[in-house]
């Protein structure tokens, strides 16, 4: 099977650990960092032989380094933002 990414969403605005604002594509994310995050998400899926829809989450620090957090093995409620941006249902 093939692995694809559907770009990224910025979920920085949160209240009590719940996402309040979703922005896609992430504003202010440098293109080189964006490409690294996309590539790492695909690498994780391939390395684990992942075979379903899911979300790979990363944090980005103030120096522009990104860190893997988790893989959510489901389509998240905020996936509608990705659908609007990409046209993929």
Approximately what portion of the residues adopt beta-strand conformation?
15-25%
Helix/sheet category: alpha+beta
Task: Work out the number of β strands.
Answer: 4
The end-to-end distance, rounded to whole angstroms, is 19 Å
Helix content: 25-40%
Number of distinct helices: 2
Q: What does the overall shape look like?
A: globular
Order of helices and strands: EEHEEH
Return the average pLDDT rounded to an integer: 91
- Quick one: biggest sheet? 2 strands, antiparallel
How large, in whole angstroms, is the Cα Rg?
13 Å
User: Can you tell me the residue ranges where pLDDT is under 50 for at least 5 consecutive residues?
Assistant: none
Strand order of the largest sheet: 1-2
Condensed summary:
The protein has 89 residues and is of the alpha+beta class. The chain has two helices and four strands.
Write up this protein.
- The protein is an alpha+beta fold and 89 residues long.
- The protein is 28% helix and 19% strand.
- The protein has a two-stranded antiparallel ribbon with strand order 1-2. A two-stranded antiparallel ribbon has the order 3-4.
- The longest helix has 17 residues.
- The mean pLDDT is 91.
Q: Which terms would index this structure?
A:
two-stranded antiparallel ribbon, 2 helices, alpha+beta, 89 residues, 4 strands
Ordered list of secondary-structure elements with their pairings:
Elements: E1 14-15, E2 18-19, H1 31-47, E3 55-60, E4 66-72, H2 79-86
Antiparallel strand pairs: 1-2, 3-4
């Amino acid at each position: 099977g093939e692995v694809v990414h559907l770009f990224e969403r910025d979920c920085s605005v949160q209240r009590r650990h719940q996402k309040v604002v979703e922005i896609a594509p992430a504003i202010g994310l440098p293109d080189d960092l964006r490409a690294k995050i996309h590539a790492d998400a695909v690498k994780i899926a391939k390395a684990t032989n992942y075979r379903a829809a899911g979300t790979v989450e990363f944090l980005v620090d103030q120096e522009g380094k990104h860190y893997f957090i988790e893989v959510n093995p489901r389509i998240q409620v905020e996936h509608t933002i990705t659908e609007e941006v990409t046209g993929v249902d």
